[in-house]
Amino acid sequence: MIEQWKKALVLAPHTDDGEFGCGGTMARLVDAGCDVRYVAFSIATRSLPPGFPPDTLAREVAEATAELGIPAESLTVHDFDVRTFPERRQDILELLVALWEEWEPDVVFQPSLHDVHQDHRTVAEEGLRAFKRTTILGYEIPWNNFDFEYQWYAALEQSHIERKIAALERYASQQHRRYANAEYVRNLARTHGVNVNREYAEVFQVYRVVV
Questions:
Q1: What pLDDT shows up at residue 197?
Q2: What is the domain range of residue 143?
Q3: What is the residue-wise DSSP string for the chain?
């Protein structure tokens, strides 16, 4: 099915969420000739570690998505304040509806409804409203998902995982986080792959499939 998709949209509440959730799948889609668009809703200016300029994450997400093969013109970066997304729900929905009307993607990758972060959950809920006419898959953010159903597996090759790791390493401002670790990313993908007799995989919850 992946090779049949021509237009894929990735919704990242904060820069790097998309890479963690489906970076390998994005790399596979790009290799298959799919037009992948990435929309980040916050560059988390107020959450940056000391010493980093305010636009750090805007630059880092551009470098990261380039590692995956996504051209600059396919990246959109907004700057909603972190942890305020529920208050901006209507603004976010209107942005998403406009994306649907303009582009009509074949598949949308977004956070899971089981994600406990309020910003992630808001994007997930509004994504379901805006893109209910197309395929919607919820990606895994393990440290935020208290419940997650492993329903759809994207089988990946080592090259896809290495590009995912290279993308995440572009986030110099986030390297202090325990999960920003190449071995963790590689081992998680290996574990999911073993579960379906593949080398590597990423997992998703299925919210809607349109074929």
A1: 98
A2: 2-208
A3: -GGG-SEEEEEESSTTHHHHHHHHHHHHHHHTT-EEEEEE----GGGSPTT--TTHHHHHHHHHHHHTT--GGGEEE--PPTT-GGGGHHHHHHHHHHHHHHH--SEEEEE-TTB-SHHHHHHHHHHHHHTTTSEEEEEP-TTTBSS----EEEEE-HHHHHHHHHHHTT-GGGTTSTT--HHHHHHHHHHHHHHTTSSEEEEEEEEE---
